[in-house]
Each structure stands twice: as C-alpha cells, then as structure tokens.
C-alpha cells in the first residue's frame, strides 16, 4: 500500500516494479508476498511481459511454499470471482489465467494461480505478447460510471488486443487536502472495476502504484516503467478532453514542458472529448501537439448516455451531502448490481 518516498526517489511500489523489470525476482517476490499478507493482491502478475512470467512465477511459488498459510484477508467478492474464473483458467484460457492474480486473496489461491500459469506458459505468453496497455488515472473520489465508461470506450477504440491499467492518485497536486485516504479509494475502485457490467475483468487491472509519488514526478518515468513491465512498445495514456486541453494550453505558454510536453513527445494519447468542449479549440489543440511534438493522438467519440455525461465525483458528493442518495447512486452505481 502507499508509501512516502524521498523526493525524486522511487516509491516502494515502484521499487518492486524496478526489481521485476531488472529480473531481480527474489526482491520482487518478497515485496509481492508482503503485500499479500497486508491484503493486496499481486495484480501486476496479470500484466507482466512474457519474458518475466516464468521467472517471477517460479520464485513466488518457491517463496510461497516456505510461508505459513493464512485465511483470505480480502473482501469476499474477490474469493467469489476467483472461484468463477478458476475453472475457465484450468481449461487453459489465457485471458482468465491472467485475470487470476488480481483476485488472489491467500497463499492457496496464489499457489493455484502460479501453477496454472506455469502449466500454460506458452498460451499466456502468446496472449500478452503485443498487447496495448492504456494507462488511466484518477482521484476516484468516488469512482463512477463516467470513469468506467471512459475505460470501456478507450478499449473499444484501441482494439481487441488492448487492456487498461488503472491507477489512483495518492496526493493530488490540487486536491490533496480534501482527498480521503488512498487505501479506501483504491479498494472501493478495485471492487467497482471488477464488478462492472460494462467492463471485461480480463482487460482491466487496478494497480497499486500511487500517482503523484516517486517517479510519477519525473516526466514520463512512471509511464515508461509500466510500459516496460507490460511489454508494450510505448506508453499510452487515456485521458479526458479537459485535461488534454489544459495540458496543451500550458505547454503553449511554455509551462509544464517537463511533464505534459514530455508526454506529448513520447506517449500515445487516447483523448475522450466531451460535447461541452469547444470543437474548434479541441481540434486546434490536437493539431498543435501533433505538429509541435509529433504526438500520437487518438480521439475517442464523446459519450451519448445522459447519465454518463452528467456523472462527476463533485456532483455525487454534493448530492449525498443533500441526502439525494438515489440521484447519486444513478451516477455512481448503474453498472454495479448489488453495490448500491
């Protein structure tokens, strides 16, 4: 779970990924096992690039065999989903096998996941090879239908060989004084993503890699690390049109060149535009970043559903403060049976 790194140094979560990227499986395994004892599934195992799968799986299997067992420490919904996907995975379905790590809740389910992965290594490696991983971030205070529909729309545009990796902001540069604790927003968001009827659980992973910490403060360093871990050929960012327009405006003024400017130069942007955004300003911003930075920009069509268009975390919080829970639920939970 979230740590406080030294300024400009990797967070503990990033350090585990750096060890994994370098093939230091012992160090990576130690961190993942420690996380599991603290109630965090080893979700990264579901997205690691093919040439890392066997090494980290064997190391974890060895390490798990030396540890005392313990009961599930995560919410029952994960145990239920694991039981649902396990038979499909046992039949060799690579997508289902890759979904199991994010549903692991104890050493028993971890061991089963690793054994199935190693037994089907060729199929899993083939399924992951060449996949595109769209990184999507947010404060998720709370996560709502608009967020999940953005992910679904981004994956639809990116193609059937695409997956999404979602991250939660730890200390938002603007909202840091008002955000609830990271852990609560992470766990709530995780359950919503994996329970949503508009998302395929095999194609979306909420990764415990807090934004606004460590390498996330250094240009595209964290984006690049995630792309390497997943074996993608480049970093890919899924973002809203409002964020894109703000970044383009800032860079035009000579601001944020080390952050937004570097993303324009190196990262494939998947931008979800909204009907409230000036179409001429939006087109002009796209033309600018493509001409000035050679940016790759894929524009995702705006949503048409009125609930999706209306959904906003600030609106949901305001409605709940006024006791209008039914209206808030319509924005937060419409695709989540049983979670209202």
What do you see in this structure?
- It is a single chain.
- By secondary structure, this protein is α/β, with parallel strands linked by helices.
- 52% of the residues lie in helices and 9% in strands.
- The protein has 16 helices and 6 strands.
- It has a 6-stranded parallel beta sheet, with helices on both faces.
- α3 packs across α6.
- The longest helix has 15 residues.
Brief write-up:
The protein has 340 residues and is α/β, with parallel strands linked by helices.
Low-confidence stretches: 2-7
Rg, rounded, reads: 20 Å
The number of helical runs is 16
Shape, per Cα inertia axes: globular
Order of neighbouring strands in the sheet with most strands? 3-2-1-4-5-6
**Order of helix and strand elements from N to C terminus:** HHHHHHHEHEHEHEHHEHEHHH
Keywords:
340 residues, alpha/beta, 6-stranded parallel β-sheet, 16 helices, 52% helix, globular, disordered N terminus
Topology:
Elements: H1 12-21, H2 25-37, H3 50-64, H4 76-90, H5 94-99, H6 107-119, H7 121-128, E1 132-138, H8 145-158, E2 162-168, H9 182-195, E3 204-206, H10 221-230, E4 236-240, H11 241-252, H12 257-266, E5 268-272, H13 279-293, E6 297-300, H14 306-310, H15 313-321, H16 325-332
Parallel strand pairs: 1-2, 1-4, 2-3, 4-5, 5-6
Helix pairs in contact: 1-2, 1-10, 2-3, 3-6, 3-7, 11-13, 15-16
């Amino acid at each position: 779970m979230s740590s406080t790194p030294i300024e400009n140094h990797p967070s503990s979560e990033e350090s585990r990924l750096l060890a994994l990227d370098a093939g230091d499986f012992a160090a990576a395994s130690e961190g993942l096992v420690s996380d599991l004892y603290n109630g965090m599934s080893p979700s990264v195992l579901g997205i690691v690039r093919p040439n890392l799968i066997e090494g980290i799986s064997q190391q974890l299997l060895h390490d798990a065999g030396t540890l005392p067992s313990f009961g599930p420490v995560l919410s029952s919904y994960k145990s239920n989903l694991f039981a649902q996907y396990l038979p499909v995975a046992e039949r060799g379905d690579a997508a289902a096998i890759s979904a199991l790590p994010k549903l692991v809740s104890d050493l028993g389910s971890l061991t089963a996941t690793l054994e199935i992965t190693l037994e089907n290594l060729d199929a899993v490696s083939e399924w992951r090879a060449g996949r595109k991983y769209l990184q999507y971030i947010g404060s998720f205070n709370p996560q709502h239908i608009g967020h999940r529909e953005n992910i679904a729309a981004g994956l639809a545009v990116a193609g059937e060989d695409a997956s999404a990796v979602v991250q939660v902001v730890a200390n938002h540069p603007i909202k840091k004084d008002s955000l609830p604790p990271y852990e609560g927003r992470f766990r709530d968001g995780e359950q919503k993503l994996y329970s949503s009827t508009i998302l395929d659980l095999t194609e979306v992973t909420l990764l415990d890699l807090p934004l606004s910490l460590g390498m996330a403060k250094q240009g595209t360093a964290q984006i690049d690390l995630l792309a390497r871990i997943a074996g993608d050929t480049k970093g890919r960012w899924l973002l809203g049109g409002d964020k894109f327009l703000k970044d383009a405006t800032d860079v035009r003024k000579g601001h944020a060149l080390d952050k937004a400017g570097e993303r324009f130069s190196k990262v494939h942007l998947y931008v979800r535009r909204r009907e409230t955004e000036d179409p001429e300003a939006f087109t002009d911003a796209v033309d600018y970043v493509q001409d000035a930075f050679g940016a790759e920009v894929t524009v995702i069509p705006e949503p048409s559903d009125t609930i999706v268009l209306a959904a906003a975390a600030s609106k949901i919080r305001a409605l709940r403060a006024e006791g209008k829970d039914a209206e808030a639920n319509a924005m937060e939970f419409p695709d989540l049976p049983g979670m209202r």
